[in-house]
Amino acid sequence: MKIEAIDLYAISQPLIRPFVTSFGPQQDRDCLLVAVHSEGFTGWGECVATNGPGYSYETAVTAWHILQDFLIPAILGQELQEAEDLALWFRAVRGHPLAKAAVDQAVWDLTSQRDGLSFAQKLAGPYAEGPRRRVKVGVSIGIQPTIDQTVDLIQQHIDKGYGRIKLKIKPGYDIALARVVRDNFPDLVFMLDANSAYSLSDVATLQALDEFDLLMLEQPLGYYDIYDHSKLRPQIKTPLCLDESIVSADHARFALEIGACDIINIKPTRVSGWTEARKIHDLGRQAGVGLWVGGMLETGVGRAAQLALASLPGFSLPGDISATERYYDPDITAPFVLNAEDSTIDVPTGPGLGIEIDMARLAAVMHRRQSFG
Ligand code: OSB
Ligand code: MG
């Protein structure tokens, strides 16, 4: 397929409520959308880099720069058969996985459409099982002003049908939170995400979480760290999950080889895209660690592609793929809704991502647009 033209959009959408993590609050969610055109098809990708460099060093502004000046020129006018070929074209750009992942998603969408397959079918090609039709999901709840408000929000999400709750923590908002939540919900499947807010000197605090029967503790230590996590793991009973520090299949291999984690949160955007995410899925599956698909407050464009990844057979735990109405109302696609009876979301079955972009809504939230080619 010749890459004939690419459109880049910068959008900003208000979140229904601010999302607060240990690295700070988000209120208006900036992101970029990429549309890649070839042979009459258009593939869409979402770049989840946002206003600030809190989770990743990339922002919507750095991602625009990397896409405009390096990634788009590298592929415009080129012949490309499969999304896997992108690694070759992008090898001159180090890092910037969130920018790369947007193009990767768009090209997977494009090649799936060309082949008359859904993104999930295309991605699941190598597995005899084929893609799952619906995937288990949970919800991620940010840091609230009070523990009581967190308890109220958990109840609201249980009432909506969510079967797994993730809570953000930070030093000073951790043990007391877990205790109150466990006291209020004795059977709740819940987990904590620290977003790198602790160090090895906090082992006593992290050990104190052992008694709450958590599903897992996500990324307590450095965002770049694997080694210290391998030292922490034998000192706590809670299963340890890595998010930020697994930025490639090589990093996943490092973590597995030194026993740094029990579980990997695979965010396709964090690892440059779906090709690399599938490699990590294969490595993790072979090693027997728990696997799930993480999220970055995606719009329906990104949610559709997360669902495709989560449809692969090795995912063993619910993903952070909550219904889109939780963050955006309206969204730029039709909403993805929760199946309340089993805390799942249906994997799209139409060609490619299987979504339709609401171009009027996109125009309303867009603040920059550029066409290439
Ligand atoms: O650490 O998983 C994280 C959102 C933004 C940045 C980091 C994280 C998150 C989430 C949200 O937890 C998950 C979702 O998309 O619902
Ligand atoms: Mg996380």
Q: Could you please describe the fold and organization of this structure?
A:
This protein has 373 residues and is α/β, with parallel strands linked by helices. It has twelve helices and 13 strands. The chain has helices spanning 60-75, 86-89, 97-114, 119-123, 147-160, 175-184, 203-208, 227-232, 249-257, 274-287, 300-310, 359-365; strands at residues 5-21, 24-38, 41-47, 134-136, 139-141, 165-168, 190-193, 217-218, 240-242, 263-266, 290-293, 344-346, 366-372. The chain has a seven-stranded parallel beta sheet with strand order 5-6-7-8-9-10-11. β8 (217-218), α8 (227-232) and β9 form a beta-alpha-beta unit. The longest helix is centred in the first third of the chain and has 18 residues, at 97-114. The radius of gyration is 20 Å and the shape is globular. The protein binds 2-succinylbenzoate and magnesium ion. Residues 55, 140, 193, 195, 243, 294-298, 320, 322 line the site of 2-succinylbenzoate.
List all distinct small molecules, including ions and cofactors, that are bound in this structure. Answer: 2-succinylbenzoate, magnesium ion
Strand order of the largest sheet: 5-6-7-8-9-10-11
Number of helices: 12
In whole angstroms, the N-to-C terminal distance is 15 Å
Structural class per helix/strand content? alpha/beta
Mean pLDDT rating: 97
Strand content range: 15-25%
H/E element order: EEEHHHHEEHEHEHEHEHEHEHEHE
Helix content: 25-40%
Low-confidence stretches: none
Bulk shape: globular
**Compute the gyration radius: what is it?**
20 Å
The beta-strand count equals 13
Largest sheet: 7 strands, parallel
